[in-house]
Known about the structure:
It contains 16 helices and 9 strands. The protein is α/β, with parallel strands linked by helices. The chain folds into 3 domains: 9-73 and 121-199, P-loop containing nucleotide triphosphate hydrolases (Rossmann fold); 82-114, no CATH class; 205-304. A 5-stranded parallel β-sheet has the order 2-5-8-1-9. A two-stranded antiparallel sheet has the order 3-4. The chain has a two-stranded antiparallel ribbon with strand order 6-7.
Amino acid sequence: xxxxxxxxxxxxxxxxxxxxxxxxxxxxxxxxxxxxxxxxxxxxxxxxxxxxxxxxxxxxxxxxxxxxxxxxxxxxxxxxxxxxxxxxxxxxxxxxxxxxxxxxxxxxxxxxxxxxxxxxxxxxxxxxxxxxxxxxxxxxxxxxxxxxxxxxxxxxxxxxxxxxxxxxxxxxxxxxxxxxxxxxxxxxxxxxxxxxxxxxxxxxxxxxxxxxxxxxxxxxxxxxxxxxxxxxxxxxxxxxxxxxxxxxxxxxxxxxxxxxxxxxxxxxxxxxxxxxxxxxxxxxxxxxxxxxxxxxxxxxxxxxx
Length: 305
């Protein structure tokens, strides 16, 4: 069922929470404005803080189709927008020749018509959809190069693409566009000017606990609080890769699978590979450090009660 866009910031918070995403007010504000103004939204932040989930949750909450363009080094127009079905075109040409077709212009017009066009994510997002304009997620834009960014400008500014053989394809209603970046490189100012912007940071303890409860309601109250307090304390360490919310959720799930009801130093040490993804970080978090972090986490839990 398709839902209407939220009418206020509070309604935006409620819409996302209803689909399992706990957003803070600054994120809800910029998302509300992006929806009301019909502007693309660029979300930057560390990996695992929930940028991609914003688009997924929004599509679910609004009942819209999610179209995802996963970016990578070397991504080009043929993979992102369209390409021609060359095999089908060649068959059509051979059949036309066998039938005695001699009008080259008519033959070219036929094989470069829409029926031979393979639509990729950007072109799909510009076409009409029965449930309403889709949510277009351009994920990890920083993995592409400046040339692809430049190509995106037409889509972000005018919600259209130009196909030389056919002409300009313009969306009848602008899609909801969210772009994400882990900031492994700077996104060009020309692209940023066409978007609203928000930095998605690590959540504080209260919001991270709310996220864990929303996503994993089966985790016990004590374990939930201790997991969040432990991760919050761990993020203060000098680590190569600080664990994100995604790792917090994975770790809580892993501990539940091990029948944990509270943090145990042995189980924490055995499951660090769920929380930390670099050996140097795991090596730093030795048994003594684990015990100190657990004690710090329990103090934080007691103070919050």
